[in-house]
Amino acid sequence: MSFPHLLEPLDLGFTQLKNRVLMGSMHTGLEEEKGGFEKLAAFYKERAQGGVGLIVTGGISPNLRGRLAPNACQLSFPWQVKKHTVVTKAVHEAGGKICMQLLHAGRYGYHPFSQAPSKIKSPITPFTPSKMSTRQVAGTIKDYATSAALAKKAGYDGVEVMGSEGYLINQFVSSRTNKRTDKWGGSFENRTQFPIEIVKQIRAKVGKEFIIIFRLSMLDLVDNGSTWDEVVQLAKLLESAGVTIINTGIGWHEARVPTIATSVPRGAFSWVTEKLMKEMSIPLIATNRINTPEIGESIIASGQADMVSMARPFLADAEFVNKAAANTPELINTCIGCNQACLDHTFALKRATCLVNPRACYETELNFTPAKVKKRIAVMGAGPAGMAFSIYAATRGHEVVLFEAKPEVGGQFNLARKIPGKEEFDETIRYFLNQIKLLKVELRLNTRLDASVVRDEKFDEIVMSSGVKPRPLDLPGFDNLRVVDYQQVLNGDVEIGQKVALIGAGGIGFDMAHYLCEDESSTLNPNKWLKQWGIDKEYKEAGGLTEPVLDDKHREVVLLQRKTTKMGKGLGKTTGWIHRSVLKQHQVAMKTGVSYDKFDEAGLHITVDDKPEILAVDNVVLCAGQVSNTELVDEMKSTGIPVHLIGGVDVADELDAKRAIRQGAELAISL
What does the UniProt keyword field contain (predicted)? Predict the structure, then answer.
């Protein structure tokens, strides 16, 4: 399949973009590291070399109070320009274009100096903002213009004004957060003067031949958000004020609707951009969960947008556009929308990277240079760790033989991809398989590695990535055939009844509850998904919300844990709330502080708060963690050949593909 619409240039009048792909804004954490801008330059340079039409940086504040965090990056003074020129020079030398995103956090600022239109605390930050005075409003507008002018001086091709996701500009526009009674509040016309004046003053400072993107909140997904008529009206005012391109913003950060997680259908919000296309004459960009060239091509070819924005897909693969242009999309390392190494890291104030591509944001530190001594390496287990090591070691020139006892590769990913909303894991397996073929890694399926093979075939190193096994529980009656583990369920080895108890409420327990409650994955049915989360495509109400509509209940599931702490406490920082919401939608019962006594024909006997209880369930599913599959470790070590453990066989606390793949990469570099 070719991608003519995706790869078609876009003429902006004073400049031309080489294709219709925008690398969307992502805060990497490098912006605040010592020497981080040199690393940032390498990161963006690889994406520019990879063919992307236009890059947008992570958010840079126009002033001190607008910072997301106390040490976050801002561009307000001439002496701050120099470090930015390192980035713009690198991108331009690679043949790319780059815009700097201007972002004022407003009440989302994670510090006590935050400001907002009104003194209203956000539900996701601990600090109450101060109300901006009329003078401070005018000063902030001026700061935006000053910062844009400095960005131009630093060599940026333009700026993106962040006007969505619930940040300061969005807070001024919405009556939800703007309770002012002066000229900056009250009527819609007054509330929108803030973004309009920002754009006008930026345009006056930077001149006509400078890109201004405005990220417009087209769908707030919060109560008392903007109406559709207000979205259209603001878009037209922005066009008149001098905006070059309008980018789509979906949902405030405090919205209780997922917008970018892996369970969100691909291209789930392109209909919003399409709705505005009929009203505008400047280019519009569609965004959110666009992760393949096929989706991007479809959106542009069907007239839903003029461009597509992809952020995390460029963490996963810097060569995304080049591979699409070469008509080899099967070689793209697809973003699976997991958030584990990108957004979860960002919110934990750690450097962002990517679960499927550990080199992301480590371009100056994690490189697979040719090995000085080429080795013959045996790898046991073709899960994420084993496959990652194999392709990275082969990239360095080692001869790699990958052994897998089962008839297919994937390991725990083969189980994870069966969970509703985690179908994207298929893409990682596909990517690894294609790389194994391309790099001539010898793959031996249905083959169990043993010591005699290692000795006979003269291997120099052994890498064990044999994974994990479900942790058994030795309790009375747990040898009953109705007590099974999560792997047996996902592999289809057992029939599960209508009433089920799940022991263990970590990530596996939550996934199993979802799996047992949902016959058809709503991720694969966008209209069903929109209804499930109460998103109104008709946009009849402000914010675009309506009453959620769920399918009939499928099973009665109860989720149990020994700990007395909140269920799902260890889930992903940016996705845990989604998993909890899904289980609530499916009416999954939850019990904490549980002691497990026995299982018999009456059901599962438990004790909660010193009170015995019998759960009359058809099945008990064990999701109580894993143990490392180490049964062959001693045998391998007996060969005298160096043995290395990576992935679950090394640490089995939780199923952690992020750690497993990075371990594989780091070991490949060290050998």
Answer: Flavoprotein, FMN, Iron, Iron-sulfur, Metal-binding, Oxidoreductase
